[in-house]
Amino acid sequence: MISLNYVVDVISDKFQTVRAFVIIGCILGLLTFLLLIMFIFKHTANRVKNVVILLAGLAGICTLIGFCVYTSLADSYGYSFILNVVAGALYFVVTIIMALDQRTC
């Protein structure tokens, strides 16, 4: 069983927080990608569009939060700046395109 002290130690370790946001962002991004492929090939109902939009938005938010925490720790941007901004922007582009697509409503 996980003790409260362990949870507090993990939360206080900022690098663990960054790793958690990265993992959450990757999982949400993968789910978004898989559901989007199923949606494009019409293996799912149109209401899956709402799930894709929600997951893409959450993945983008997690990616950007993880990036902000990481840069506040490392005080440098490097390649992580480019990768995280591109990933976050792509998630939001998918969200906007799916939301504006009238044919799938």
SSE topology sketch:
Layout: H1 4-12, H2 14-40, H3 48-74, H4 78-100
Structure characterization notes:
With 105 residues, the chain is mainly α. The protein has one domain. Helices cover 82% and strands 0% of the residues. The protein contains four helices and no strands. The protein has helices at residues 4-12, 14-40, 48-74, 78-100. Helix 2 (14-40) packs antiparallel against helix 3 (48-74) and helix 3 (48-74) runs antiparallel to helix 4. The longest helix has 27 residues, at 14-40. The model has no long low-confidence stretch (mean pLDDT 68). Keywords: Membrane, Transmembrane, Transmembrane helix. It comes from Lottia gigantea (Giant owl limpet). This is G-protein coupled receptors family 3 profile domain-containing protein. The chain crosses the membrane at residues 20-41, 53-73, 79-100.
Estimate the global geometry from the Cα principal axes.
elongated
Unreliable stretches: none
Order of helices and strands: HHHH
**Distance, first to last CA:** 45 Å
